[in-house]
Amino acid sequence: MGDFNELSTYEQTTVLVKAMTQEMSATAQAMSDAIAKSGKLDVYGITFATGQATITPQSDAVLSDLLAVLNANADWRLRVEGHTDNVGDKAANLKLSNARAAAVAAWLTGKGIAAARLSTAGLGDTQPVADNASEDGRAKNRRVLLINQ
User: Fold this and answer.
1) How do strand 78-83 and strand 118-122 relate by DSSP bridges?
2) How far is CA 76 from CA 32, 134, 143, in A?
3) How many CA atoms lie within 13 A of 10 on its CB side?
4) Separation of alpha carbons 146 and 53, rounded Å
5) Bridge partners of 62?
6) In a 3-state reduction of DSSP, which class is residue 147?
7) For a surface tag, which of 50, 94, 127, 140 has the fewest beta carbons within 10 Å of its beta carbon?
């Protein structure tokens, strides 16, 4: 508060608070480099309808990059693994992770990748990479893992 021409004045500062957004992009080259270096890659960004193995349209960019990786590395044979968090029935999660891995392989074979280059497995919640006690941890555990065989 201050005085100006014998009148009281106030100064107000407004702060707009927004949630931080995280944008991640994995290019085909970065994916290829990671697989070449370690032989495997956790892939995030392949999403499915809740409780189903239906791939959502938001997954197209990541899958297209994966397709480019396989096209650029014609000698690679990948194992596509589906992983879930620990929410829900273990048997149902195992079945769902199998179906999701198969859906990713089917998408790739539908784009011309030879089926003989891909194998699939669903591991449910048996190999978490983070603590399932938090939503962030559960999100990290819901993934597709690619292993060069």
Assistant:
1) parallel
2) 10, 35, 21
3) 3
4) 17
5) none
6) strand
7) 50
Print the SS3 string covering 16-80.
CCCCCCCCCCCCHHHHHHHHHHHCEEEECCCCECCCCCCECHHHHHHHHHHHHHHHHCCCCCEEE
The pair of three-digit structure tokens given for residue 99, joined into one six-digit string: 């179906």
* Tokens (6 digits) for 6: 């014998």
Q: What is the distance in angstroms between the CA of the first residue and the CA of the last residue of the chain?
A: 71
- Residue type at position 99: A
Span 83-115, pLDDT tens digits: 999 999 999 999 999 999 999 999 999 999 999
The percentage of the chain sitting over the pLDDT mark of 90, rounded to a whole number, equals 79
